[in-house]
Queue: 4 jobs
Job 1
Amino acid sequence: MSNHGDATLPGHWGPPYLLYLGNPADDLAIKTARGVAYWRPEWCVGQYRHRDCKPTLGLPDISMAQAKAKGANTMMIGTANAGGMMAPEIIADTIAALDAGLNVVAGLHQKLRENPEIVAAARRNGRVLFDARDPAPGIPVGNGRPRAGRRLLTVGTDCSVGKMYTTLALERAMRQRGCAADFRATGQTGIFIAGSGVPIDAVVADFISGGAEWISPARSDDGWDLIEGQGSLFHPSYAGVSLGLLHGAQPDALVLCHEPTRRHMRGLPGYPVPELKRCLEANLVAARLTNPAVKAVGVALNTSSLSAPEALATCRQISDLLQLPCQDPVIMGVESIVDNLLACFAN
Amino acid sequence: MSNHGDATLPGHWGPPYLLYLGNPADDLAIKTARGVAYWRPEWCVGQYRHRDCKPTLGLPDISMAQAKAKGANTMMIGTANAGGMMAPEIIADTIAALDAGLNVVAGLHQKLRENPEIVAAARRNGRVLFDARDPAPGIPVGNGRPRAGRRLLTVGTDCSVGKMYTTLALERAMRQRGCAADFRATGQTGIFIAGSGVPIDAVVADFISGGAEWISPARSDDGWDLIEGQGSLFHPSYAGVSLGLLHGAQPDALVLCHEPTRRHMRGLPGYPVPELKRCLEANLVAARLTNPAVKAVGVALNTSSLSAPEALATCRQISDLLQLPCQDPVIMGVESIVDNLLACFAN
């Protein structure tokens, strides 16, 4: 794999991080920062907020200079907004961070490197800029050839139903059991957490499946690549990304992710969330094009809008319906899903 | 629609064209030039070939200066190669064309505007460069909202089975009957022929369905948008593009395109061409997400590898199998497909 965007290289972007929140519209706008703070708390020295910012990660509020003094290497712009554009205040704050001696990383569609003032400030301070939505150069067109190794992909009924959390929870649980298992990031938050990956929604359309092949190359150590899914085959805005990722991943195993209280597809009131059985079957049918032996091994629910008894009852009901283990990775863990995965691929 | 890439604007790229062949590897490498010469012969003043070039369009071989003297406005680089890169000789010839006073257009993944020598030559001569694979800025994310007007999309069992030819043949036949019908281009050759469009395989992955919505906006004149399909839901390299295009197009009508002698998916010996019935059904199922009323109205075959009696027999066989009119648009026209289309949407 290329070193592009590899946070583990010396002198490159990477932790420790100051998490920049600025002045976000709502709690959803800081989901990138929240993901990094949740999965890599040891990498986060503090958060930077404007005075009127209500959302918080529960980290100490510190200035850029304080962050630098506490050992931060990089300020991560952990906010997102519709369209991915940079507000003027984010540009000013980015320049201030560079002047304070921090590198800056962001995951917006609008790139840091496309703003001349930001580029000048980085150059003047000898700092690194990294756009997580900038795919590495040289990703090839997908070739569909069967490759060695085992791969699991999370797929969803909709966007934002917990595919990244589920995939990371599987990595943690499998490693705790001594399995070789590696999270493969396909979105900006995942890339910040993993330190590398492909922003699959930002590659040129012809290269979606190629990008998926590129992040999960052949492996021969009997371990698993756990590939972060994106979107949904049933989301009319993004299904092309989901299908290309499904084909390129050549998954042996699928885990279906779902938010049981979601009434309609994210952002599209006219589109109901697909029925679970139909959604899983459509993913299996499409996946068989590049891996005829693909199996569903579990269902992961985001039950954060349910009471504990409701969450348990819903998991049981869906488990009965699909004849698969069903858990909320954040509240219940993923042990029964891992049990089933390992049982299905025991040979 | 934006004026980006609109060949009908004064002082912009556009015909008359000198078609540049250079020194292509084989006949397939000049398919862009061949498409333009076939559909818009009145726009083509000649072809430019190197001495050792075997493929020909049957146009007069002329120099760049001769082309300019004959009224050519633009040299079109009508060759393609795997990966879409520019060979050194193409760079040199492009500069020579600019120095001869011609604008230059190309449809390669590697952009004219990314080569500093080419950009300098264009500036020095006051000439225009146009990269057909450069999507217009500002294409939005798809919104999936039902929109007015009627749309037909060509879909395929594979890449390069005649989707563009079929769509253009439908435009010609429908216009001859007095129907309002407009070809909507989604690939570089189609963009050169139509004078505008969206290179759907070159947009950022998140914007595939948005690009399809953008080129076929709501219309209220009772006419048809005829949208050029791309790839195939069954091609593991490009299916994401095909699905996003299918969702964004919201087609009322599908025409399935097929090459009956193709043994495996283009470039992928391990992947057989899908069975016609299964392929059509998969396209209809996926299309229903954004247009539940979608109907298949015909099948278009590329029978160029068959004898005339074989071609007729194959059309009859497939017509019986799918209960749809089946024709080779180039040899037989598309009248029976248009008959069925108009009968299906007669109200």
Job 2
Amino acid sequence: MSTDSLRTSTGRPLTSRGRQTRERIVTAAAALMLDIGVSGTTMEDVRDRAGVSSSQIYHYFSDKDELVRAVIAHQDETIVGTHEEVFAHLDSLDGLRRWCDGIVDYQRLGGCSGGCPLGSLGAQVAETDPDARAAVARALARWERAIRRGYDAMRDRGVFEDSVDTASLAVATLAALQGGLLMAQVQRDTAPLRASLDAVVHRAELLATR
Amino acid sequence: MSTDSLRTSTGRPLTSRGRQTRERIVTAAAALMLDIGVSGTTMEDVRDRAGVSSSQIYHYFSDKDELVRAVIAHQDETIVGTHEEVFAHLDSLDGLRRWCDGIVDYQRLGGCSGGCPLGSLGAQVAETDPDARAAVARALARWERAIRRGYDAMRDRGVFEDSVDTASLAVATLAALQGGLLMAQVQRDTAPLRASLDAVVHRAELLATR
């Protein structure tokens, strides 16, 4: 989302300082929702963590649903935006391996808590908030396209044959990442994430060497 | 869990009729938690759906946390128990394909809502209820072992070489299933689940034909 389109809860455009305060609130809410879940996070928790007043928080967000959607947009920008950068420069099996290693290392550092900042939000809102579910669905679709760009580059470089379905490969890669992150979160162990991402790399290797 | 070990919230063993009432409460709670999530489900919702009184529900469950753990045990028995049966008789690539097709068909029938009855519980409780998280982790480990049994049977029949790591294959299969179910739930579309499970089958085929 362009920062120019950001508004207060009564529809006014934000000043530069207003954007900073809003950003602090959203970052605090995102961290809390990753730590204790969407339902466990109250507006009061967010207010305290962001160090703002109640009137300030309601100046930017009319209710918690609006804040949840701002957190989804924030994770879309952060997580999917980062992957767009990464996969724009990824065009080899080695690059794919390094990406997998980086994800496993990052989860290990965080004690495997929280799961995927976007996927875990999706699981929590899917049956209770259709608008939030649709926003996560759009972010996942953007994520698929980002990953596909890396597979397309590999195909263009001749790593894969032209007949390889890079779109399906990208969807399966994202699914393997989501499932691996969920299992790592629940089992508090990077092993399932490692096995899941190794399967992605292994299949790419088998496709490349046929 | 053996039904003999079931108790009231004050520790008394259950009669046959008591076990039936308890089962009705747990089934109602499981359906509600799949429909509207763990946090959205109240003890009053469960009472009304099960058609029991408040004193009856608290006769079996001292609080919601205890009910959540009973639902996890119920899904463990239902979902993982079913998979133990299925994979005890699965020893071929055709069997693996049929299993995948069955899962996709089942999700299509349900409009892709709810996600995995066990994995979605895991995502919801992982950061808020350590005992519930550990119970889901144990169920996932049991599920891995069930799937592995099918891959072991394939290896024993010569579908795979002896060097194939069936344990990792099983973990990656479960992760692909979990990630595919989560994406299908969020995107309300079986396509990501299909792509994720096709990747599992495809990798098994590539391993088998090397």
Job 3
Amino acid sequence: MAPPMLRLSYNDIHNAIARTAPRIMSEFSPDLFIAIGGGGFIPARILRTFCKVTTDGKKRNIPIQAVGLTLYESLGGIEEVVGQEVVRVQWIDFSTLGSKLKHGGLLGRHILIVDEVDDTRTTLVYTIKEMQKDINKQLEAIEDVDERERLRATTKLGIFVVHNKLKPKAGEIPADVAYFSAVDTPDVWLAYPWECETDIEEHDMLRKDNPTL
Amino acid sequence: MAPPMLRLSYNDIHNAIARTAPRIMSEFSPDLFIAIGGGGFIPARILRTFCKVTTDGKKRNIPIQAVGLTLYESLGGIEEVVGQEVVRVQWIDFSTLGSKLKHGGLLGRHILIVDEVDDTRTTLVYTIKEMQKDINKQLEAIEDVDERERLRATTKLGIFVVHNKLKPKAGEIPADVAYFSAVDTPDVWLAYPWECETDIEEHDMLRKDNPTL
């Protein structure tokens, strides 16, 4: 028997993100998004619409940096395999991020990592660890101890996923990392609209047969 | 009077990309996508679904690298201003792209730059020029003249935009760069679904009042 499939329309995703954004803004107040490609690209772009910040009386977009990890590339972005190695194919561009911002670009910021789904948690845990290495490297470069500790205390990492599958995870999110999921689901196949190779209107129509979750 | 607005649903975008993908595959056959963020993130992720390549009997995704340009950041991704300076905030990650691929990662490839709209053409022309600089730098590193010319001849650049606004452009696409647009539109305000901050279902409904274009 095929595993149960949860079909999702683009508007489902848009609305799930719209509903979650106010909580992200009030509890985490991000000022940098890290989109994990390719799955995080669409959620990050939608989330940005609902997370504008006002500076000098102007509404401004929160910048998005993209990172790429081969785990997704090789498997078509649909599922993770526990224990599979994660390899970077693109990382944050510090050459530009660092030149315009103090302290290498990450320190003192509220950095939200965005992906479509938290499945086995492998890529999210990998991304968090790598980000923490980058942050620690930038902290070590601060000579003034007080300033270094002030920056350590004000640099925040968070995660946003559209869907969190309620299942055993291959790794743990550190306690000091904020975690937001728009929807918690059982361990079903999530049929995202952007993966629909056939008729998207039919996909949306069939979605009405979704099991009640 | 407000300028005419063309409302677009997510499915409009999905279908426009699905319709154009076979032409992109047969005429250009891309093996690397460059998504211009944030506008190109959603089109690139959707396009990838329709451009899988088969190697060793397995369907594989074409990798996406993201680039960020401040022109978009500062203006909320909606419109360009002629003459405005473009500044990189993220560029291709050669540290990873280059280590796994011969010749620095770009040579011999068919590289498709993806964005949502070709408005004044400023960012697209900028991106093409910067990519050509990178390609030339990688070509110069090839010592064998025959191999260098073979790689020069087989490296291709292309552009895909969902919408091309039929209006005067601030720059020209070089003749050897392939160009694909899913839809050509008059110079109207394109209301993309991912920019909808209010009710996406209402946005879709009001879309029925779109002027015939």
Job 4
Amino acid sequence: MASDSMFLLAGVSLLSAMQMGYLARRVGLSRIAHKVMPPSVTGPPEFERTFRAHQNCVECYPVFLVTLWTCGVFFSEVAAAGGGLMYIIARQIYFNGYVKSNKKRLPGFYLTITVFVILSLLGLTGILCGILHKYFNIHL
Amino acid sequence: MASDSMFLLAGVSLLSAMQMGYLARRVGLSRIAHKVMPPSVTGPPEFERTFRAHQNCVECYPVFLVTLWTCGVFFSEVAAAGGGLMYIIARQIYFNGYVKSNKKRLPGFYLTITVFVILSLLGLTGILCGILHKYFNIHL
Amino acid sequence: MASDSMFLLAGVSLLSAMQMGYLARRVGLSRIAHKVMPPSVTGPPEFERTFRAHQNCVECYPVFLVTLWTCGVFFSEVAAAGGGLMYIIARQIYFNGYVKSNKKRLPGFYLTITVFVILSLLGLTGILCGILHKYFNIHL
């Protein structure tokens, strides 16, 4: 467990935050293109898919941050940063696919789930080892 | 204020992240059961309640993480972890209740608010004591 | 980069979490005033604007937390805390404006974007300097 500054995790987090801003902007541009004025969230199918794609990313984002940082702090910073970059790519594939059609959201969706499972399992491993070590004096 | 590794907070955070994944899955299963295909978010009342129950958890989740960690870092890790487990249970009661009927969402909702108030007040106490100590040299 | 306790960042984070609770309460009060019962999210224009204003804050909130903490940890805690207070004010202006009319959401919206750009750029500067220092031994 690294105790010094987590530059890679912070960098990936900031990059993912910028991606969230970019995806929100894409929804705004889709509003203009399809003449869907706020606060309405219904309109042509392409707008609704773009809107839902962004909403899904909003739903996933705090879960991503928790799994990124638990994996990075309690297992390996480099592994977590790699997983984080894969997550950002997965979300971009998901978003771009979903904008085109319902079915094209699936590859990016499955890649997102895969990253979540990997980050969670590595983080869980690190936390359980830490708890065994700290509270039960068991070293694995 | 503990400066060493926050295994309990990290463990509760990861558990709550997994719960968020589980609740998202429940919405997906409700989509299949009620034949509501994405990106649509309207359908039979039970689907709409399931969808809103999940959305409410999405709205609460970053607020939970902030109150969990401020309470855990600046007041007491064990108290925060206990509050965090209560939050996870409260959200499950809320979600399961809301799926059944509008009214049955209320017990879990009030329990969630109670946990938020407790975690916030403890975290606020810890932060104010820390600020008085660090910037004004006042020890309480 | 300060390694000791981040009381100001934690205080601003907790304050922003309380604001999120307050804005959620405002949506609840708007439901009662316009007789829009959950799980419905459609109703009179004022309710729909209030609902969307809150949703927009939900979308922004994790992005805010990431930019606040990266700026605070890797650039300057005081600058980040100041930016964080500006964010809270910007969101309140946005919310109150949006409740009144579509157009009145814009000043608070632009102020929010400004805060995001400042926090992100400062955080990015700090992280890049840190990476150059740690991995390439370059001091700026």
